[in-house]
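Format notes (please read before filing issues)

Several people have asked whether sequences and structure tokens are stored in separate files. They are not. Every record keeps both together, in the order shown below: the sequence lines, then the token lines. Line labels are part of the format and must not be stripped during preprocessing.
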Amino acid sequence: MQLRYQLVAEAARQYVRLNFAVVVEDVFAGPMLGEFLRLLDYRPLHVVVLLPTEEAIARREKARASDGYSAWTVAELYRIFAQETERLGLWLDTSDQTPEQTVREILARAGEALFS
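Then the structure lines:
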């Protein structure tokens, strides 16, 4: 596993021990999602995966000033998420949502996002 994931997990663990609510945001595609979650030994643990359609990702990418997917094409990244990533936690298709709508849906469905 990449060192940065181990460091993020350790930092999250330390904050949780100090009673902080911790949010980790990153790209955990393919087997990396399950591997990363196994590093997090505290509960409750909520997992939310945002996966808009490939078309929505491409549209958003075109609107960005920088290239957010330089290591992969949108199609490759979408395939890895859709076909190779274990369905853990709550998966949301956010294709037609604003960021505010996505937050509201996550909060409304938090119980579905539990990982044990």
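For reference, the curators noted about this record: Strands lie at 45-46, 48-50, 90-92, 114-115. The mean pLDDT is 90.
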